[in-house]
Specification:
This protein has a three-stranded mixed sheet with strand order 1-3-2, with no helix packed on it. The chain has a two-stranded antiparallel ribbon with strand order 4-5. The chain is globular. Helices cover 18% and strands 4% of the residues. It folds into two domains: 30-92 and 112-158, no CATH class; 166-242, no CATH class. The termini are far apart. Strand 2 and strand 3 form a beta hairpin. It contains six helices and five strands; from the N terminus they run ααβααββββαα. It has helices spanning 2-18, 48-51, 107-116, 135-138, 201-204, 234-237; strands spanning 86-87, 147-148, 154-155, 164-165, 198-199. By secondary structure, it is mainly α.
Length: 242
Amino acid sequence: MKIFVSLIVQFILALCVSGVALAGPPAVFGTGIVGSVHDFSRASWNPEALSYKGEICNVCHAPHDGGRKTYKAGLLWNRQLSSSTYIMYDKSWSPGITHAQDSQPTGNSKLCLSCHDGSLAIDAFGSYPGTGWRMWDENTNKVIPRFKDAAGSLDMHGTHPISVTYAAPGGGTAKGFKPATNTWPGGLTIADTLQNGKVQCSTCHDVHDTPGEVVPGTQLLRAGLTAKQGGASALCLTCHDK
């Protein structure tokens, strides 16, 4: 027994010397899609959770389209896209936006909104028609547009502009913005996280919780919001020169 206790003590001391934290998990970035907030393999609304336990990717992506043509949305997409009309956060709302912006969400922002605008069933993917279970039912805080106008358009004025050209896409400077060569904490440049030179949802969020690219304890953010998360307002100040 004494020998066993001695070995345990030596093991703990070795951990302390090596710098491994014993009070909790080490302060690291994302740990990958498995177990992340986008791991739906055990979600109660996922029809594949019972049939194919552990299957994660098919909720959003499919290696073969099956003739449904959802792949045309890009990234082997496996979901219907929303037909909602959006009121964009644009230059009419903020005169500081002087660069090109799409009139409606484009690129991978459109993919994100196929769940996060709350208009479509989140259990409708692949050959599954869905039961009507929407993001509103899952968690209203996860719905991106919070309001609809009288015509039913989804109001995006309460969220950061998307589908808008970055002010300094070529690496140069522009008033109020840092060059696109500036880096996120994980090492990627701003330019790396633009899509065709435009700010999209994926500029600030890494949906796959990629190791080294996501700050733990955040909504899959590439930089923290607080000093405890690695930098006060680092998410904003990576791009905005304030």
